[in-house]
Amino acid sequence: MKLVHDLPSLTALRAFDAAARHLNFTHAAAELAVGQPAISRQIGQLETWLGTPLFARQPAIALTDAGRRLHEATNGAFTGITRVTSEIRRVASVSELTIDVSIAFASCWLLTRLAGFTAAFPDIAVRLVTRDVTSIADPAADVVVYYGTGERAPDAACVLPNRIVPACSASIPAHERPNEASALAEAPLLSLEGQADQDAWERVLGGTGINVPVITPQRRFTSFIVYREAMLNGQGIGLAWCGMMADDLEAGLIEPVTDLVHSDPHRGYWVTTPNQNPAATQFRGWLLDLAQEHR
């Protein structure tokens, strides 16, 4: 049994296929970046190997019956090989990027913008690992976006620094809203619980000089997503994190109720890249450039 296919020279078959498509030896030579005599020589050798002419050369070049049969085979074969090898190269060139983020950051900010990263870097496949808290990141993560301070990692860069304003749903009538800081303590307040945010109201009101010994929000939430929904649904006065709620503020769904603004450049969302690879570096740069618009 033969283990090797009984085939003519692949170089000769490529020369023939190009000449058969163009019906012009000079054009075939240009496609393959060789001289026209090389095309004639390869086709001559192929015709000798086959024992029959492949082209009728007078009055104009044309395929013989044997040439047409062979061209059907070579054209299909080379087209199939080109398609498969292109797919293999494309898959091999795709990098997978694992991004560890909180559910809140992913849902409220990143997901609506992630298509922009894919459009800019189509060869990077994104894998999102989401959790309620990112105090312990996925060890396989290339990028980690977390809430807190920059002390967590030496390479941490601030994505969205804290800028917080008292706000409420646009559906709450103006006469039902507190219009000055002193009235906030008596308003139906919403708060977000958690290690980083449980004292947010105290921090916001602390610089006003208002004597507010105890803040007692009527409703407290442990999930930022549910907290945001409560604000959107008009269930009380909450604190709007301007970066995370940028879309809600810009759309007029949530509106500030006073001119109070609490800024803390040391606290907010930070990005770190534990695995220094090109894809992580590209995502980090893209994220920081995009977030700059929402600070």
Describe the structure in your own words.
By secondary structure, this protein is of the alpha/beta class. The strands form 3 sheets. Strands 3, 4, 5, 6, 9, 10 and 11 form a 7-stranded mixed sheet that branches. A hairpin with a 5-residue loop joins strand 1 and strand 2. Helix 1 crosses helix 3 and helix 1 crosses helix 4. The chain is rod-shaped and about 100 Å long. The model has no long low-confidence stretch (mean pLDDT 85).
Concise overview:
With 295 residues, the protein is an alpha/beta fold.
Q: Overall pLDDT, averaged?
A: 85
Give the biggest sheet.
7 strands, mixed
- Count of alpha and pi helical runs: 10
The secondary-structure class comes to alpha/beta
Helix share, percent: 25-40%
Structural features:
single chain; 295 residues; alpha/beta; seven-stranded mixed beta sheet; two-stranded antiparallel sheet; 10 helices; 22% strand; rod-shaped
Spell out the blueprint of helices and strands:
Elements: H1 10-22, H2 25-32, H3 36-50, E1 55-56, E2 62-63, H4 65-93, E3 95-102, H5 103-110, H6 114-120, E4 124-131, E5 143-149, E6 157-169, E7 190-192, H7 200-206, E8 219-221, H8 224-232, E9 238-241, H9 246-250, E10 254-256, E11 262-272, H10 278-291
Parallel strand pairs: 3-4, 3-5, 7-8
Antiparallel strand pairs: 1-2, 5-11, 6-9, 6-10, 6-11
Helix pairs in contact: 1-2, 1-3, 1-4, 2-3
